[in-house]
UniProtKB/TrEMBL annotation:
The organism's place on the tree of life at top rank: Bacteria
Pfam families in the record: COX2, COX2_TM
The Cytochrome oxidase subunit II transmembrane region profile domain, residue ranges: 17-112
Name under which the protein is recorded: Probable quinol oxidase subunit 2
Domain spans labelled Cytochrome oxidase subunit II copper A binding: 116-228
Record PANTHER family: CYTOCHROME BO(3) UBIQUINOL OXIDASE SUBUNIT 2, CYTOCHROME C OXIDASE, SUBUNIT II
Amino acid sequence: MSKFKSLLLMFGTLILLSGCSNVEVFNAKGPVASSQKFLIIYSIIFMLVIVAVVLTMFAIFIFKYSYNKNSETGKMHHNSLIETIWFVVPIIIVIALSIPTVKTLYDYEKPPESKEDPMVVYAVSAGYKWFFAYPEQKVETVNTLTIPKNRPVVFKLQAMDTMTSFWIPQLGGQKYAMTGMTMNWTLQADETGTFRGRNSNFNGEGFSRQTFKVHSVDQSEFDSWVKDAKSKQTLSQDEFDKQLLPSTPNKELTFNGTHMAFVDPAADPEYIFYAYKRYNYVQKDPNFVAEEDLYKDVTDKPQKPARKVQITNANYKRHGMKPMILGNNDPYDNEFKKEEDHNAKEMEKISKSAKDENASKFGSKADNDHGGGH
């Protein structure tokens, strides 16, 4: 009988999940997404078992101890065995769910194991768009991403305006991109194909259009793509600044050269405000301004000279970090990578310090709320 119940539960779960091929988180195409998929299915099955046991016991108790079948109320007021069971079982359930969850969450931060050297891509969100700079290949794309199959890709996440969340469901979970910060996120595609990526953190009226396509291709096809991209128009600072404006339409674009030749968004978080001034862009509330008047003052050509490399992020000077400026003719060599690693470590320290400070403030507030403050 128990085997029959187990088979029934298994087939029931399969039926429930049979339509999940169209649900991107269940259609994993990379190692990070695969571990995430396992964790989700493991949790679902575990919870289904719990629900099935509870409902079965509920039905048994209703039938066995119904008013019509019992002439008097129960007389048992204490049972050590039963009380031990209902305290121990929930603890076992929590442990069984928490161990794989914590392990998987920590594994997310580790780069996928691969014989191939990781490729670095700077993923920058601004103006409800995604900009992808390839420092080694010296090309940049907007709202489209091409990566080689079976090669880890280290995304260096940055935001130039609102906080966003970088998410490619079929390759792995999301990670936040914040102004004044550079956060590393390593993903890998195990298969060729086209996947969807997006910002999963609501950040304003353009949230729905902040999406991009991910093309996973063979290494030879990737090399051909890079060669073709180098024949495209060179990304000028004027063009980059114009693309930063929310008023500029979202299109899939490819350029020779990268924005890293003239700005490090994490080092100069005020850069985007200067770009707004260059094109006379003023943010207006669409709830109170007619649609045709939102962008009527925006100019086609810049009204101010291009901004020079600056550091307006106080943390850079405080932590001895340098802006990641890489000219289009400069090599992406070990010296530059050392500075990248140094900045990444300092960013981790800043992030950890901020978390500890917030935790300390929260603890102090809790003490004060309960009369325990000093």
